[in-house]
Amino acid sequence: MVNKTTISAPAGKPxxxxxxxxxxxxxxxxxxxxxxxxxxxxxxxxxxxxMKHHGSYLQDDRDLRNERQKQKLEPAYQFMLRVRMxxxxxxxxxxxxxxxxxxKYGNGTLKxxxxxxxxxxxxxxxxxxxxxxxxxxxxxxxxAACGDVNRNVMCTSNPYQSEVHTEVYEWxxxxxxxxxxxxxxxxxxWLDEEKVAGTPDxxxxxxxxxxxxxxRKFKIGIAVPPSNDIDVxxxxxxxxxxxxxxxxxxxxVTIGGGMGMSHGDKETYPQLGKVIGFIxxxxxxxxxxKVITIQRDYGNRSxxxxxxxxxxxxxxxLETVVEELQxxxxxxxxxxxxxxxxxxxxxxxxxxxxxxxxxxTMFIEGGRVADFDNFKLKTALREIAKVHTxxxxxxxxxxxxxxxxxxxxxxxxxxxxxxxxxxxGKQFSALRRSxxxxxxxxxxxxxxxxxxRYLPKLIDKIDEIIDENGLQEKEITxxxxxxxxxxxxxxxxxxxxxxxxxxxxxxxxxxxxDGSRLSKxxxxxxxxxxxxxxxxxxxxxxxxxxxxxxHFGDFVVRAGIVKAVTDGTNFHD
Length: 573
What we know:
This protein is an alpha+beta fold. The protein contains 17 helices and 22 strands. The chain has helices at residues 16-22, 31-34, 45-51, 65-70, 92-104, 128-137, 162-178, 185-191, 284-298, 309-316, 318-329, 377-387, 407-420, 430-433, 455-468, 528-545, 552-558, and strands at residues 56-60, 77-82, 89-90, 110-112, 118-123, 154-155, 220-223, 237-244, 247-255, 274-279, 349-352, 358-362, 368-369, 371-372, 375-376, 391-394, 400-405, 435-437, 478-481, 495-501, 504-509, 520-526. The strands form 5 sheets. The protein has a 5-stranded antiparallel β-sheet. The longest helix is centred in the C-terminal third of the chain and has 18 residues, at 528-545. The radius of gyration is 23 Å and the shape is globular.
């Protein structure tokens, strides 16, 4: 046991979101009533703030915004809906449900997110309840997929060590379930459960979150070395699996990671999580709960831009937070154990795992599952789901693993892969295979520039430079976001672009290939011509001057092109 330290939350008037949560009756608000109102396709802002906790955001199609304004029509409102799916594991039957719902109620596509789950766009207000009920009937849900709570728990999806992957996945699923909000609001609003809270003999409580929940969102990820595909250092709370003699013995714990920031505000920055010790698997929930309650009690509820746990850790000091954690636990964490990461990317193609099962990792650019003019991706995956008896694993790099394929089914699935031209990405450059982009325009209300729709076109032009320098098979992580919130974990891209305005981006360089070092600002507010000009020089130098086996991010730091960043507070400098 350690000595108790006196700490406190920042002073200041609570933000308006805190008022909304306080008045919401445990996240109910007036959602049940406003979702029945057909006079508008939108909902009031207070209810939209609550809607996040139910897994959804109200958006509008920004491609249509100006034209609708001219016609004096309200924006083309629609809802984005995100599924809670710990570890990204989906059964074929669930895939088929999501595929059908995308066509029936959405915009006909599915987005595979960087947090290993499904996201649907284009759902109209009057179809939301039917959509959520259908998802629920498939044994999935959207509870806490967004909002000021713990969100979808990630875990390593690539089966480098399949012996422990199933065990790690089960821990991620248990953690996700155990950390759910206890309010019955979701079940009452969407699943027609009768409200029992408020009756004389029933008092509703949130034993861990409390009536105000957390100051901001909270993210947890579990990595299985040597793969850091979930970017464990980007998580508010990370667990690094320690395997000895092919057995899972426990986890190193990291705290205080996070990717979001605001342009021009040095009080906001991405940050790497710090390793604070080792625990056994059975101690995982106790640690997670106590870390969350520390953020609940001491996080910033006045300034949402400084409300993430990383700022709580930086403000209080790492040692103070660890001391408080151990006081709440009643025991001390053990010393962290050695570990090693090779990369934060995916491993493509067929891989044979334990028990004779096969896994096929396919490249899906931008994570967008759709039927394109000459590439019927959505149809192909539907046909595979109809015959597949294993599972689908959505990766944190927006790709897909057709997992646990039996030897008998491998031939049939391989034939479908060939018939529809599905790919492990080997015909593309390694740069393209290492790319991630957030949704951005036209649906994200925060986007300042394009990302998903633009990055593939930009890579077309960068690939010409790649080819000129013989770097086609050299993996370089490249990431693009339409705003600084970090949904594509831009700060961990060896080359990264953050949208500043239409067609303009801040360019960052120098993150580590294994996700252990942040990128750093290199050029501000530049367009495509300047981006290509800069990369032509940089990639040429890299091809000529790199040391054998040296990754691009390491090269630009070693060559003095940018300084190494391990502390997010100098990310902007």
